[in-house]
Amino acid sequence: MRAQDMLAQRFETHRGHLRAVAYRMLGSLTEADDAVQEAWLRLARHDTDEVENLAGWLTTVVSRICLDMLRTRATRREEPIDLLTELRDSAYDSDPEHEAVLIDSVGRALLVVLDTLGPDERVAFVLHDLFAVPFDQIAPIVGRTTATTKKLASRARQRTQGGTTSTATELAAQRQVVEAFLTAARGGDLDALLAVLAPDVIRVADPAALPSGMSAVIRGAQSVAKETVLLQRRSQVAALALVNGAVGILVAPRGKLLLALTVTVRDDRVAGYEVIADPARLRELDLAVLPQ
Question: Region 249-277: what's the mean pLDDT?
């Protein structure tokens, strides 16, 4: 067997890991595959006799590629995909199979929160907290000292955890109600929705969040429940998260935030919620992953 073929075989044994690392850093399967392919091209040009730990070398290379892509994206203020066209035009269809598996493995809400981090913070957090790479190995990738790299990951960790004035008991109670609402929405279960919605519930929404002809404000459990069933597909790409310190819902096709729901829970029912779609308003939200 030719040396290049043997090298390709060795690379393929690491492709899944590299793809997972790149996806968590970039949040786009297409870009992750591009990063992995670039890592292969660099390996093919490199003197492999100098590589003692191929897995570690490839992880470092793909991380540097991802960091460059994140920095370029931040400079241009670009998303990896055009959310307002491609995602809206997809009408909340199910994620492609392979991407859905990756999203499920890392968590849809975490992918959204990772998008709020700076490039260096994101790389340091992903490598250390999600893949247990030591800080002294991450430091050269981000071009910082080990101590500074620890601070980057710590800041990112704090961002992902967020802050709330609610007690653990209050959060648990909110979560139970909002989770019941989301479960009923996913199943299109009208009776379950009516059971979790307060009789006088109010739904408010940005016009951009609604199909043409729907009112920005609707009132009453029957009306809200019927609309929720009508928009059932949205719930398939939704996840619970902390939104401004309370339990809310993120609608994130392919792991990219499109809508956020701030939910008011009262007397163990959903008393109201607002659907936020305006990009400027979405950027102002304090988003975090729910504690386990």
Answer: 95
Residue 286 has pLDDT above 90, yes or no: yes
Q: What is the pLDDT of residue 235?
A: 93
- Give the residue among 50, 28, 19 at the shortest CA–CA distance from 96: 28
Domain coordinates in residue numbering, the chain = 3-161, 168-288
Both tokens of 289, joined, read 């992953």
Superfamily of domain 3-161: PhyR, sigma-like (SL) domain (1.20.140.160)
Token look-up 């909110």 returns 174
Q: Say yes or no: domain 168-288 is CATH 3.10.450.50.
A: yes
Q: Which residues contact 73 (CB under 8 A, 6 or more apart)?
A: 79, 80, 119
Q: How much is the pTM?
A: 0.86
Q: What is the pLDDT of residues 157-193, one digit of tens each?
A: 998 988 777 788 999 999 999 999 999 999 999 999 9
